[in-house]
Amino acid sequence: MSHYTIGELAKQSKVTIRTLQYYDRRGLLIAHRQTDSNRRYYTDEHVKQLELILVLKQLGCTLDEIKTLLDEDTNMNTFKTLLSLRKDALHSKVEMYSHTLNQIEKVETYISEQSSAPINHLTDIDDAMKQEYKITYFRKKIWISVGILGIIQYSGLLLSLLRRSIKPLIVIFPILITYAIVLTAIYLKKVLYLCPNCHHTFKPTLGAFVKAKHTPKTRQLTCPNCHQTHYCIEVYQNES
After folding, report:
1. How many domains would you assign to the chain?
2. Quick check: 146 pLDDT over 70?
3. What secondary structure does DSSP assign to 96-117, as a single string?
4. CATH number of residue 9's parent domain
């Protein structure tokens, strides 16, 4: 049977000497002692047990759990039950961390890289995020309305082509203009914009709203509070 010093075992198993000393104190891997010098030495059985300990650690077992498994000479069926419990716990953690990561990424979209606003404005961001479902629902209704507007427009165009007359377009043109004006007014009434620099919420003028470059969720506006131009985030305006 081969004998190993603590240094040899540490090097062979790619762990530190301190780790082996700690496992010895915890009763996980108790070294033999030389009677004359009291120095630690390890055998092939220790090597196998250390390999098992390292595998169990890779599977997420704590040292206390590993000691229990080794002391009770656990069989594979019992160990599978432990693994199932460990897997469920990890799934819960993954879901929690995934939710936290999602929240972090959302908050980041509300803050510009140059923002110097105090941290208490984080509550304003949180309020805006809590209203996201409202603005999403509102946007869906607007898109439905835009779809109706498109149907009216293309119906008039098709009718004009079929009749070879411009009259259908002339008839629906005032309807389209009125519909578009009303839709824009409703939209502007229901939204505010949050500046990612100072986190002030504001309502732009109609002219600024119409002319501004925009994405589905932001609009390039000049904040009346910090006077900087950013892609400001659209938030829902609650009824007062």
Report:
1. 2
2. yes
3. HHHHHHHHHHHHHHTS-TT---
4. 1.10.1660.10
